[in-house]
Amino acid sequence: MAALKYAGMDDTDSEDELPPGWEERSTKDGWVYYANHDEMKTQWEHPKTGKKKRCAGDLPYGWEQETDAKGQIFYVDHINKRTTYFDPRQAFTVEDVVVKPKRYDGNTAALEILQGRDLSDKVVLITGGNSGIGFETAKSFALHGAHVILACRNLSRASKAVSLIQQEWHKARVEAMMCDLASLSSVREFAESFKAKKVPLHILVCNAAVCTQPWCLTEDGLESTFQICHLGHFLLVQCLQDVLRRSAPARVVVVSSESHRFTDLVDPCGKVDLALLSPSQKDYWSMLAYNRAKLCNILFSNELHRRLSPHGVTSNAVHPGNMMYTSIHRSWWLMTFLFTLARPFTKSMQQGAATTVYCAVAPELEGIGGMYFNNCFRCLPSPQAQDQISAASLWELSERLVSERPAGVQAL
Ligand SMILES: NC(=O)c1ccc[n+]([C@@H]2O[C@H](COP(=O)([O-])OP(=O)(O)OC[C@H]3O[C@@H](n4cnc5c(N)ncnc54)[C@H](OP(=O)(O)O)[C@@H]3O)[C@@H](O)[C@H]2O)c1
C-alpha cells in the first residue's frame, strides 16, 4: 500500500474521493464547497487535494434550481419528475485556476502577443504605418483580422505597404489614407475622410516621427520635428476624439523614446516654452528637437488619458527599443553610421512593435493608462515626463497653436 502511495496511486479510486463525514455541495452560482458533518463546518477547498472547483456549464435541459423553506438549494428534474439536493453540474466541475497574465519582455515579438486573438471587430489607425515599427505593428494587427488604416504622408509608399501585408494574407483588411502630419490642414482633411467612412476607432497608434532632420518650417510656420512628432498627432486626436469616445473602450498608444530623458521643455519660470519646442534656426539642434518631441509624446499621452479616460478612452506611451534599423536615421549620415554599428545587437522589427501591440490589446491594461512602457513592462519615465503641470501646460499651448491655425488659414 505504501508503495502505491509513494507512486502517487493511493488506495482510492480517485484523488477526489471525499473522506468519511464530508459532503460536496455547490452554491447558487456554481461554486463547489465542502461540508464536514462531524465538525459542522464548510470550506471552499477539497479536504484532500486542497483544490477549489466550480461547476462547468449550465444545468441539464429540463432541470431547475429552487430554494427550500430553510434556504437550502435543491434541483428539480422536470422531465423525470424528481428532486435532489445534489447539483447535477457537479458531475462536470473544473478546477478554479487563476489565469495569470502572460509575462512578456524585450525578446517578445508582436505576433506572439496576438497569438490566438481575433481582432476582426477592431478598427486600428496607425500613423506612419508604411515603414519600420509602424509597418510591423500594422501587419501584426491585420494578420489577426483587424481593419487597419495606415495614415501616411506618401500614398505610393503606403500602397506598397498595403500590398506587402496582403501578400502575407490575401484577406487582410488594410488600406492607406493620406495624412501629412507636417500640415494641419492635411490632418484635418484626413480626419474628415476618416469620419466619412463611418467606422469606429478602437486603437489609435501615434507612431510617425522624423529624427535629426535639418531645420525647416512647416507650412504652418512651426519647426517640423515638433509638428510631425507632436502637434500633428495632437490635432489628429482632437479631431477624432468623438469617434474614439463613441468606440469606447478605445486605446491610444503614443510611440515615444527613451531619448525623452535627455531634455526638458520648461523655461526658467517653469512654463512650457514654445521657443524650446519650435526654435529658430540659430537655436536648433536636430537631436535635441527630437528628444523634446519625444518628451511631448509622453506628456501628451498622460494628459490625454486624464481627459479621456472618464469616457472610456485610455492612453499610454511606449519606448519601442533602442536604435532599431528602420528609416529613422536617414536624415543624418552620422545616425546611419551609428545605427549600422548597432544593428547586430538591436531588436527585430517584430520585437520593436511588441510594446505598442501589448499596450493596445493586453486585457490586464483595460482601463489603465497615463503610463510609460518599455519591453512590455511599465517603467517610470523621467521626472520631467511625470510632471502634470507641464502636461497640462503643453496641452493648452497645443490647443492654442492649432486654433490659431484654423482650417484654410495658412501661417506666414
Ligand atoms: N528606430 C528606433 O530605434 C526607435 C527608437 C525609439 C523610438 N522610435 C520611435 O518609433 C517610431 C517609429 O519609427 P521608426 O523607427 O519605425 O522609423 P521610420 O521607419 O522612419 O518610420 C517613421 C514613419 O513616420 C512617417 N512620417 C514621417 N513624417 C511624416 C509626416 N509628416 N506625416 C506622416 N507620416 C510621417 C514615415 O513616413 P515616410 O516613410 O513617408 O517617411 C514613416 O512611415 C517613431 O515614433 C520613433 O520616434 C524608434
TrEMBL record:
Q: GO:BP terms for this protein? A: apoptotic process; cellular response to transforming growth factor beta stimulus; regulation of signal transduction; Wnt signaling pathway
UniProt GO molecular function: enzyme binding; oxidoreductase activity
Q: Would the keyword Repeat turn up in this protein's UniProt record?
A: yes
Q: What's a GO cellular component annotated to this UniProt protein?
A: mitochondrion
Q: Which coarse location class describes where this protein primarily resides?
A: cytoplasm
Outline the extent of the WW domain: 16-49, 57-90
Span list, region Disordered:
1-24
Family from the record: Belongs to the short-chain dehydrogenases/reductases (SDR) family.
What name does the UniProt record give this protein?
Answer: WW domain-containing oxidoreductase
Native species: Myripristis murdjan (pinecone soldierfish)
For this protein's source organism, the top of the classification is: Eukaryota, Metazoa, Chordata, Craniata, Vertebrata
